[in-house]
Amino acid sequence: MSGPVRVGVLGPVAAWVDGAEAALGGPRQRAVLARLVAARGRVVTAGALVEDLWAEPPPGALAALRTFVAALRRGVEPGRTARTPARVLVTDGPGYALRDVEVDAWAFEAAVAGARDLAPAAARNALDRALGTWRGSPYAGLDLPWAVTERARLAELRLVATERAAEARIALGQAADVVPGLDAHAADHPWREEGWRLLALALYRSDRQADALAVLRRARALLADELGVDPGPRLAELESQVLRHEAGARPAAGADDVWRDTTSAYDRVVAAGARTRLESTTTLLRTLAMTGGEGLAAARAQRPAAVRAAEQLGDPDLTARVIGAFDVPGAWTRSDDAGLAAQVTAAAERTLAALPDDAPDTVRARLLTTVAIESRGLPGPRGPQAAQEAEALARRTGDPAVLAFALAGRYLTRFERTGLARERDAIGAELVSLSARHGLATSEILGHLVRMQALSALGDWTAAQRHADDAAELGRRHERPLVGVFTAWFGALRSAAAVPRGGEGAASPEAAGAAADAPEAEATGVEAVAVAERAYRAAAATLDGAGMPGMADGLLPLALLALRVWRGVPADGGGSDGGTADGGSADDPGGPGDPGVDWGPYEPWARPHLLLARSTQGDAASAARAVRRLPDPPPGLAAEVLWVLAGRAAIAVGDRRVAERARAALAPAAGELAAGSGVLTAGPVRAHLDALTTFLDG
User: Fold this and answer.
1) Which one is predicted more confidently, 589 or 224?
2) Which of 423, 332, 378 is nearest to 633 (CA)?
3) Phi, psi dihedral angles at 6 (to 5 degrees)
4) Domain residues of the chain, as ranges?
């Protein structure tokens, strides 16, 4: 099957499949695609499409529409075989809709809306990327009424994005840089008071007070002479601030100035090679890690170097402080870099052994918590043991920050078996309560995320949503952008969990294909599941550049495969792009699913399902061999889902031994959903246990 499909309407209507431009045909065919884009994924009935394509529909307009749809499908899904359901331009009830597609206008709108809650630097970057996707006038060449309306709406949104990007740059101290652009913007759009306000503000913050006042007076005169109105409150307030030289119009003397002066003083006063520099470096790395993205990656890479430098000084107490100061909690149970984690763990163990007997409990607790956190997702008793010891010591100290860190380590190792969601929820509840009382924002955010995850497994969606919202609010307030990744995935999880029961038993590919071109046909199971798959793909975009490869690797295809296996929809390449395995031998299918799909650490559990999705006898034999070779899933947030995949594959190939292992492993989670990660689900564990029992006892 074909790969990712992108549609562009921020310019002439176009589409790309696997990076190559698709053949869309003539203007009316392009208008059909554009009209479905304007519907933002909602169904447009065939009758409405006919009315929107022709002012006076000719005889045979409906037949012509179906011809256009069929041609568009060939263009955007060139690899689709006959009688298989469309994946992109789908039939849904009485009409058509777009599914599984990236649209530049949709992404642009989401970026502009999301930038409202971002810090200035992140907002500037997001808005610059969004504005860079424009290729010209939206829906260029289409003069139909709905296209004219959409063009005007998007053009207005572009002006808003331009102004917000300029405002972010002004907040970042780049006022002089934005003056030329804002000058042109105000001249081109003289009735936009926000453009005049930002231009005046940029001039004032560039130490051009007279020019700022001239701009404000020009705006006032223009509004009065042409429209007969006074400036709005924001424009009037800025004029008053400039006249009074108030701080509101000038950047605060904090932030960059304080940072520059403080670091300059530090370099002058603290001697090169002083031990305190190492502790200061670790504190800085801790702060850097909280920023996510490049900051998190840099902090992760530099941390082992700081630890090695401390060890070289031969002072276990100093090394312990350097290691323990990096008290960055985690909400995912797979390390982002196993090699670096192993280095830090080994250093923490060496330091624990070298500490004097009278070392403070706080120091030991932090080191033990570090061992627990860096050992997360690994089999064996050391991680849980270190977490238990750290928690006991932390409670003895009475230090809330040390206890919060220890609880974070306890949470990450509370995966000795399945079915422990209630225990993790209790940890999350204590984290929230403790952190709220003592102003520990980072730990409070973690507590809410832990509860969001655990309550997802327990099926309490109302409470889980409340904690997701609380985490998101704290993340915005304290500039923790990575929180948004987890809450976006939680939203996708809720979409997957809400797929109607009709999506559970999909129609056969033949039956779905036969109905694919008939607008009156009911949506197939594949189409119902596609709604959730689209939500997963949107959530996956938040992981781009987030600096969390331990979470990102293979997560999207795993989420899609788990959904399909639960709902009884053919794996068909895991659903990542609807592809199928190809290439390689029977035992090694090469890249499972589409060639570009990376299953990461989940490949062993995906392989049997991908092989079973193919129809040859050799593939079935290979699937049976793959099931026999399945290892136990590592302890962590995905364990229940991986055991479900193992159990369902064992049933499909008739492997009783693996089915027994899966049933025994899943039994403690019988009352839970396989959704404890808070990001993906394979449905109620009880349903899978019943299937395993039927197979084993039948």
Assistant:
1) 224
2) 378
3) -120, 140
4) 1-173+251-269, 273-495, 497-697
Q: Which residues contact residue 561 at a Cβ distance below 8 angstroms, ignoring those fewer than 6 apart?
A: 571, 574, 575, 606, 609, 645
- Closest by CA to 623, choosing from 600, 637, 642, 606, is 606
Helices (H) and strands (E) in the chain, counts: 31, 7
Q: Do domains 1-173+251-269 and 273-495 have the same CATH topology?
A: no
Residue 102: strand pairing partners: 6
The residue written with tokens 């603290």 in the block is: 270
Contact 408, 392 (CB under 8 A): no
Share of the chain above pLDDT 90, in %: 66
CA distance 606 to 611: 9
What are the backbone dihedrals phi and psi of residue 582, each rounded to the nearest 5 degrees, phi first?
Answer: -155, 155
> What's the rounded Cα separation, in Å, for the pair 129 and 514?
42
Give the per-residue pLDDT at 615.
Answer: 64
d(CA 102, CA 108): 11
What pLDDT, on the 0 to 100 scale, is given for residue 305?
92
Per the listing, tokens 């109302």 go with 462
Round to whole Å and give the CA distance between 550 and 238. Answer: 47
> What's 246-311 look like in SS3?
CHHHCCCCCHHHHHHHHHHHHHHHCCCCCHHHHHHHHHHHHHHHHCCHHHHHHHHHHHHHHHHHHH
- C-alpha–C-alpha distance, residues 644 and 658, integer Å: 11
CA 560 to chain centre: 15
Extract the tokens encoding 661. Answer: 């292992």
What single-letter DSSP state applies at residue 223? I
Is residue 323 helix, strand or coil?
A: helix
CA separation (Å) from 13 to 5, 77, 168, 291, 426?
A: 14, 17, 31, 37, 52
Q: Which residue has the tokens 């196993």?
A: 338
Q: Which residues contact 518 (CB under 8 A, 6 or more apart)?
A: 91
Which residues neighbour 373 within 8 Å (Cβ) at sequence distance 6 or greater? 329, 330, 408, 409, 412
> How far apart (Å, rounded) are the C-alpha atoms in residues 354 and 371?
15
Comparing CA positions, the residue from 312, 409, 397, 340 lying closest to residue 370 is: 409
Query: 213 is written with which tokens?
Result: 């006042």
**Residue 12: strand pairing partners:** 140
519 has pLDDT over 50: no
* Per-position DSSP letters for 549-614, written without gaps between them: HHHHTTHHHHHHHHHHHHHT---GGGGSSS---BSS-SS--SBSSSTT---GGGHHHHHHHHHHTS
Query: Taking Cα atoms as reference points, which of 653, 650, 652, 643 lies closest to residue 683?
Result: 643
Q: How confident is the model at residue 252 (pLDDT cuts 50, 70, 90)?
A: low
What size, in residues, is the chain? 698
The CATH classification of domain 1-173+251-269, taken from the options 1.10.630.10, 3.40.47.10, 1.10.10.10, 2.120.10.30: 1.10.10.10
d(CA 387, CA 414): 9
Q: Is the pLDDT of residue 566 over 80?
A: yes
Q: Residue 397 and residue 407: Cα distance in Å, rounded?
A: 14
In 3D, which of 342, 433, 333 has the Cα closest to residue 384? Answer: 333
Spatial distance between the Cα atoms of 85 and 481, rounded to a whole number of angstroms: 38
Answer CATH for 273-495 from 3.30.360.20, 1.25.40.10, 3.40.50.20, 1.10.260.40: 1.25.40.10
Reduced to 3 states, what is the DSSP secondary structure of residue 616? coil
Distance CA 306, CA 277 (A): 10
Model pLDDT, residue 247: 55
**20 CB burial (10 A radius; 0-12, 13-18, 19+):** exposed
Q: What order of strands is seen across the sheet that includes strand 20-21? A: 20-21, 14-17, 5-8, 102-103
At residue 89, the 3 state secondary structure works out as: strand
